[in-house]
Amino acid sequence: MGEYSRKVPVVALRGMAVLPGMVIHFDINRKISMEAIENAMENDQLVLLVTQKDPETEKPGKQDLYQIGTIAEVKQIIKLPGNVIRVLVNGTKRARLEDLIEEESYLVGEVEVLNEEIENQLSEAEKKAMIRGLKDILEVYFIENPKIGKEVAKQLMKLEEVHELIDQIAVNVPLSLEDKQDIIETVDLIERYQTITVILTEEIDVIRIKKDLQAKVKEKVDKNQKDYILREQLKIIREELGETNTATEAENYLAAVTELTAKEDVKEKISKEIERFKNLSGNSSESAVSRGYIETLLALPWDKVSTDKADVNHAEKILNEDHYGLDKVKERILEFLAVRVLTQKGDSPILCLVGPPGTGKTSIARSVAKALNKEYVRISLGGVRDEAEIRGHRRTYVGALPGRIATGLKNAGVKNPLMLLDEIDKVSSDYKGDISSALLEVLDGEQNSKFVDHYVEIPVDLSEILFIATANSVQTIPKPLLDRMELIEVTSYTENEKHHIAKKHLIPKQIRKNGLELKQLGISDKALQRIISGYTKEAGVRNLERKVGELCRKAAKEIVSADTAKVKITDKNLEKYLGKEKYSFQRANTKDEVGIVRGLAWTSVGGDTLQIEVNVMPGKGKFELTGQLGDVMKESARAGISFIRSVSRKYGIEPDYFDKNDIHIHIPEGAVPKDGPSAGITMATAMLSAITDQPVRADVAMTGEITLRGRVLPIGGLKEKILAAKTAKIKLVLVPKQNKKDVEEIAAEILEGIEVKFMDTMEEVLEEALVQKA
Questions:
Q1: What's a GO cellular component annotated to this UniProt protein (predicted)?
Q2: What pTM was estimated for this model as a whole?
């Protein structure tokens, strides 16, 4: 309830509140406030001090002011420079602003002075309870906030009136403007008591939380300060010992770890190793080992990948530009790329290119990397005997290094390069371990996602690498390792293919390599044909490239010494540059002969023809084999003679013929070892021809294994063998019937001019090969 109403000059306060019982001085610079103070001084010195809701408002209206303020008595006015006055006031009672009147140059308020005599209505017990409650809270507050002066605390603790104690708490305790305004506006004493209690309790909680936070911050700062001091001391100690480089290197390594593209567990392990390195003496051998290990870990591409070029047409164009032929290989690569485009990832296959030397296996891998925009890494496995070459050495050994796989990844700089495992058929095993077994983990898609190199120790992901292996033969590759690879056969080139490869690739490459221009050297087609047939004997084109290089060098010498503008090489002047022809293929015999049969053989440099000769002479049934034949060929010869003896009656051979005659089988070029299962029917035909004195057709060649019952079994290397027959101008080739599927895959270009007949039994072979007597 209001005590009375009256008009009083109004001073709007900005950013502060004045409570009853509060003596305070403040500065005024607004004209309306100065005028209000002066008017008060001229009358009864009373003003209403009420707080503005928004301190930025220059001319406040009633709506801009809080409803309840404090009637204060102006005690003193001091004029300050800059048109500012300092006012000393004493807050007396609360008052409600009923209306605001703007008179001339200052504000006047219709105010209702509020009655606060409610304390007289409280019982003594209630007063004591409220006083004690407030003082208990104050004691806790003073303990938590020792900034409150002891004298202020004493004065507050002496007060025994509830309303006075509450207002003095609000005056002397640093509360927010909002809290002070709440206390001013709470007229009811009990409510005011509850308000101040809540405010003090919250303040105590805030102070405690603030202290905890400050303690934690201080603890952290102290630790950082301590660490800094210790580091500085350690730095000085290291400088004294001459070990300053170790700390600097460790800092550089830690900075590199933060930039590393890797999983958190990998970074954590590397960081631990760096911390260990920090504490090592810079001059110790262990420090050098640790340094090398850390640098290896930082150089590995843990999760760094390159983006593949997913354009099948572009890849096909690159492969066709770089290589002539090799259709199966190109098709398989394009299939892989098409799957990668559709699946966005796809499992990387492990391809194994198998074929004779010089057929372009290694260069195909390089072209695939170029077509897919992959980093290219070549690892040569020829002659590798130590398992640590693959798995790496354990770091306990002196001079330990990571294995070739991890080193290849480090050199590539990404985790998804194309990795060529060259000459995988040449690896060997000894007491240092089995290389092929170590490669099983590398090439197995189920295991290689967590490949552990003994040196690196942290699992490395190899699953995104595109592995391509090369081999000359699958015979020496262990079956478990072979099972993990997809075989693609790279067969021998025909003379026509070699001609195209030389013109399109080899000649331009060698001309550039030897400092010539294309217009300075010309090689005719006939000359190139002679080089292929007379100066090289190979399945691939490596020696052909050497011969072209030799021509380029001689042409370069001639251009420089004789000041010639251009050198033209034809089949007529070819011998001037390369000398006499080195190789000549045995041509088909000009006439039918007894006991001489042309066989077909596969060699590591392609196909060849073998002239098998048989002589029969009187003797005691001796059976002789010469020409450095291997065990398999010897067994084929024995199987052949056993078959002939079993059918001797059919061919009119006397029963005691084999007891009275010696048989001698010879294959010319006796210094060259020969072995293999494909000469069985050839030797049997030659022996029967010599025994029955029936000539063998001169234009026929054959290949196939024989059984005791005269069945013809399939063989391998058919393409190379038919190529050899074509070179020797053979018209008819007899092959096992079970090899028909292989013949169907051979290009029409190779089969042109050759008749291929399929044999199932030895009788069919003899019927085709022997010239029947009239």
A1: cytoplasm
A2: 0.60
